[in-house]
Design a protein that fits this description.
346 residues, alpha/beta, D-Maltodextrin-Binding Protein, domain 2, six-stranded mixed beta sheet, five-stranded mixed beta sheet, 15 helices, 11 strands, signal, periplasm, TRAP_DctP_sf, TAT_signal, DctP_fam
Length: 346
């Protein structure tokens, strides 16, 4: 393999390879990494992050790293199994949600509670910082590469907009996670849980009246065609919720790599990768919203005073989460306080 230094790696990754050096020789891949995720191959996360990131790793390593991407759970299993698939070596890298295995990664799941998001970039930096400070060892057998969130969720419904607690009464909603589901239940909604990949069927056959999701999900599942109304918090308010995500690698696979290849992966991961993914999710959010507008769907605003009432309804959910963290051996109050501090500072 052609020798490359950490200095050249950092230089090439620093600007996302905006001006990559042309390679004069083709190099056979020294290591092939299988990356597994649950979204379809047309999703922005696949086309605008995973594919470019794989190309950057290949470029920065002079062809020593090849990433094979398997969308739509093509390696088998269900989305909640992605973390275990990584730990067991079924795949080498996976993009997964802590909420798909509730309570297993409680620190990483903390910011999936209601109203724990501003925008995706700032919230992703806050999450990564929180994991650095409190989450060491939570992903045993896996090497975390990045932690991030999406932008705040909105309420997408088929028959009428939701701008008040009264509008939620009896509404059948797919909740994005247990904590948000508890808040929506307290506000009068009838909540169901299933992976986002099953949402299309639920909306099509009338099992649910709507869902709570960010706009970035809209294009991948044609949500603008399945619903007619979207409702978002008034400007300046925190988002209704944001799920947290982890990009993780099999630790044994990483440990077995050469130092040079490890250096490329290290330079392409960490806080700046979390920030980058968050920034891209803010871009995905804007694009998804434009699809809703293009469809002619109504976008309503949830007044700030109403959001304040919903935040009060979420306080018992937060208190229960603090107890859950403490029962797991953490300082739950400190983690929740630090998360809020980071979000307010962002």
């Amino acid at each position: 393999m052609t020798k490359f230094t950490r200095r050249t790696v950092l230089a090439s990754m620093g600007a996302a390879l905006a001006t990559p050096a042309l390679l004069s020789l083709a190099h056979a891949a020294e290591v092939t990494l299988r990356l597994h995720h649950f979204l379809p191959g047309v999703a922005p996360m696949h086309t605008r992050f995973f594919e470019p990131w794989a190309a950057e790793l290949a470029e920065a390593s002079n062809g020593a790293i090849k990433v094979q991407i398997f969308p739509s759970m093509q390696l088998g299993g269900k989305p909640p199994q992605l973390a275990d698939q990584t730990r067991q070596g079924i795949c080498d890298i996976a993009w997964t949600l802590p909420v798909y295995t509730p309570d297993r990664f409680p620190v990483a799941e903390t910011m999936s509670n209601p109203f724990m998001v501003t925008n995706a970039e700032a919230s992703s930096v806050a999450l990564h910082t929180l994991m650095d400070e409190f989450g060491e060892g939570e992903y045993r057998g896996m090497k975390p590469l990045a932690f991030h969130t999406h932008d705040g969720g909105k309420l997408h419904t088929r028959d009428a907009p939701v701008t008040s607690e009264a509008d939620l009464e009896g509404l059948k909603l797919r909740a994005p996670n247990q904590a948000t589901g508890q808040m929506l239940t307290a506000l009068g909604a009838e909540v169901v849980f299933f992976p986002v990949t099953d949402m299309v069927v639920g909306l099509s056959n009338g099992v649910i009246d709507g869902c709570c999701l960010p706009y970035e999900v809209v294009p991948a599942f044609k949500l603008q065609e399945l619903t007619s109304y979207s409702a978002e918090p008034a400007p300046g308010a925190r988002g209704l919720y944001a799920n947290t995500f982890a990009l993780v690698m099999n630790q044994r696979k990483f440990d077995g790599l050469s130092d040079d290849v490890k250096g490329v992966i290290e330079a392409a991961s960490g806080m700046e990768l979390s920030r980058r993914i968050g920034r891209q999710f803010d871009e995905f959010e804007a694009f998804g919203r434009s699809m809703v507008e293009k469809q002619g769907n109504e976008i309503a605003e949830i007044p700030a005073a109403e959001i304040a009432r919903w935040q009060e309804a979420a306080k018992p959910v937060h208190d229960a989460w603090i107890e859950k963290l403490s029962a797991a051996g953490h300082d739950g109050a400190a983690i929740m306080a630090r998360a809020n501090e980071l979000l307010d500072a962002g």
